[in-house]
Amino acid sequence: MESATDGERRLQRPGVGLPIDHKPDGPIFCSAVLGWSPQPSTVRERSMLAVMNALTDKPDWERKVFDDTIVARWRTEAVYAPPPLNSWSEWTFTTRQGFDDAMFDFCIAEIRDKATFYAEKRFVRVFDNAAAVAKSDVVVSASFRQELVRVAAELLEDGVPDSKKDWHPGSDGQVLDLVHPSLFPFVYGRSRILENGCTLGLDDCLAAAGRGETASRSWNKKIWGSKKNVCRYWDKSLWSNRFQWLPCEVDFTEGKARIISYINNLHPIRQRALYPLIEQVMDAAVPLWEEILGYTGTDRRPDTYLRMVHDSPYYIYGDRYYDDDEDEDEDDEDEDEDEDDEDEEEYDEERWETNSRAARREKLDSNRELILPSPKPYAQDDRENVFKGCKANIRQQGLQIIVKLANIHLTPDKPDYPGGSWHVEGMSNEWICATAIYYYDCDNVTESYLGFRQNADSEALVQGAEGQYDYGGIEYLYGVRQEEACAQNLGRVLTQEGRLIAFPNVLQHRVEPFGLQDQSRPGHRKILALFLVDPHQRIISTANVPPQRHDWWAEEVVNGRIGELPDELTEMITLSADDWPIGMEEAKELREHLMVERTGHVHHVDDAVFDAVNFCEH
């Protein structure tokens, strides 16, 4: 246990020493729930993103993209015979609005630049306009993957009786939690936290089990109402004053990740062999995080790299191009001429004009063609100017990372996994800014995907159509609907064995449905997920909270490693008490409450983030 210096004696973390909804004075990485709202992108641009994602899933794509013969075959697939490409077929972008040679040429030029980047970094960005997803099949080696499969099975799965397996509530016995942050989280009003700012290391944390002061549970109304606090603009339901997932502390002073406080629910002694393996995945994830976080940045109205700029619909009417604004200008002139008329005459004239305008509109609408947008000429400099120096340096002060290991198990009796819901990770007081998922073991399952969507600035759409009588063009071009949420699907990333995926928490994501390949035998998919706490905002971690598990504490007592205990505590052990520090039964009950809260959080995020598109005129 490390003691704090005099200047550090009071712990200052959201919920302990600071309000739960505290926001630091400096910049923070963007979050979907704190107002991140990029420019909308057209359906055709998103089809280009989908095609580039699909092409970079092809084996040796970084070499093949420079082979003109292979590129010609890809052109046939993309332009003339859609949609055969992996992770493209579900999205109907191309079949609805076409995919032409100009779009394909732009994609190939951009992928060639991506290949140069990949040769140096060994990962590639996809869906990159305002945010980006990073993927790699090589930053984690095959030999390491096999070692992780072996050690994880040996320490977390083998020999565990069915009665002790922790099937995730509500998963119908398909999702097996091996290490999950929702079990034994930090609980305001129940969990203990070390007094005087002391911190725990890996080797001394078990001896501190049950020590510390109970954390209070309250909102700070003064800071909530402060005009300086951006958090005040959002519903309190986005924060929790009951629970917080606990990250571990990770140090990088020697250039490599070193976990220096226990991973919640991963025993620091008995399961210690997993720690260095998880550190290696952290090392692999950090460059991907730095790239995507630098790309997203800290501006809630981010720069957006648009391959197509199409502010308002344009049509062909007979032999000429027609912009809806022209009709609006004519109408404005007519209305100005009638401005001084008497009220009754003005009403009659206005009604006549309305009917005349409607008739004129109907006639025009029957003989018009919407002009679909085309990509601007590709220029690498355009991209570099938007995101110049975008890489973030996040590891200087160490990181806080929340760890999860979970399996999806399918059987002949339950051969299909239905998929998940759209969500961002964590409650707002956990300040998760990015996620990395490593798919380390897949057996006998069909291809599975992780879908992504993002909010878009609905006001920008409305401004683009303001004063027009036809909003169908905007709806068609951008794939939005009047009075519906302004959510734009970006596409989906293949989650194959050995792949590492990283993405910022500005994007909503969901696990897509998948099933058994051979339905006569079982199959599984196993993941290691890492949730990065915003380095600008440190939260309560396992360095501050002694282990809360009764079984860990009881094991230490029985083995005599904690030291002499009061008689009453010895009696508790003798009677197999299960409530000190927190027993499994209570922990699972608390998890149920946590899950109910987070289910509500998903709906609150949808309400807070995805504004409805409203073309009403003002």
From TrEMBL:
Residues 14-77, 102-556 form the DUF4246 domain. This is Duf1665 domain containing protein. Residues 1-11 have a biased composition (Basic and acidic residues). It holds the Pfam family DUF4246_N. InterPro entries: ARM-type_fold (IPR016024), DUF4246 (IPR025340), DUF4246_C (IPR049192), DUF4246_N (IPR049207). Residues 1-22, 317-359 are annotated as: Disordered. It comes from Diplodia seriata. Residues 322-351 have a biased composition (Acidic residues).
